[in-house]
UniProtKB/TrEMBL annotation:
Its main location: cytoplasm. CDD domains: PRTases_typeI. Residues 56-178 form the Phosphoribosyltransferase domain. It comes from the Eukaryota. GO terms for biological process: purine ribonucleoside salvage. This is adenine phosphoribosyltransferase. It is an enzyme of class 2 (transferase). Keywords: Cytoplasm, Glycosyltransferase, Purine salvage, Transferase. It is found in: Cytoplasm. The lineage of its organism: Eukaryota, Metazoa, Chordata, Craniata, Vertebrata. Pfam families: Pribosyltran. It comes from Dasyornis broadbenti. Pathway: Purine metabolism; AMP biosynthesis via salvage pathway; AMP from adenine: step 1/1.
Length: 191
């Protein structure tokens, strides 16, 4: 799809066609959304679709998950006129942090951290990441927020797969993603 082309009819998820499949093998995500971010209307529509279910909800801060969640999270924060909090992979913050180990989508053991002075009890956060495949990364972010007394007001990602972890997140939190129901099976099967 041309990076300047905008279809005459823009249904939810039209911009998903901008994404490209991985050419680097199983140690990488199966689909790369970064080209979507280069398309001005596609990116705007993606953010609008992610935020639509949260219109009128009490959200104090948007938190983006390292690293690609920073793009969508910062755009969501700017749209909502809220602050942005980066939830980082361990070792990148030079302030007091709290850490949470997790297993990512490729099965690698990692640690995530967040600064301790950014979340106060009762603060309502919208957690944003690019993709929720197995749910491990998002669940670690949820645990960090809740351990500091924050409230997860919602979870948003381009896709939340119907994996065991993805289903758990959708059962316990208000969620938003951009994949229309008719396409969800293809995304779950990485097609």
């Amino acid at each position: 799809m041309d990076l300047c082309h905008v279809p005459a009819t823009r249904e939810k998820g039209w911009y998903l066609a901008l994404m490209a499949p991985s050419v680097k093998g199983p140690n990488y995500a199966w689909l790369d959304p970064s080209r979507l971010y280069c398309h001005p209307q596609g990116f705007q529509d993606c953010v609008a679709d992610l935020l639509q279910p949260f219109q009128g909800d009490a959200i104090d801060t948007v938190a983006g998950i390292d690293a690609m969640g920073f793009i969508l999270g910062a755009a969501a924060a700017a749209t909502l006129q809220k602050g942005f909090l980066a939830i980082r992979k361990a070792g990148h913050l030079c302030v007091q942090t709290v850490a949470q180990p997790y297993t990512d989508y490729s099965g690698r053991e990692k640690v995530m951290e967040v600064r301790t002075d950014a979340i106060s009890p009762g603060l309502r956060l919208l957690l944003v990441d690019q993709w929720v495949e197995t749910g491990g990364t998002m669940r670690a972010a949820i645990e960090l927020v809740e351990r500091l007394g924050g409230v997860v007001a919602g979870v948003a990602a381009i896709c939340i797969e119907n994996s065991e972890g993805g289903k758990w997140i959708q059962e316990h939190y208000k969620c938003s993603h951009c994949v229309p129901p008719r396409l969800q099976p293809r995304f779950d099967q990485h097609q």
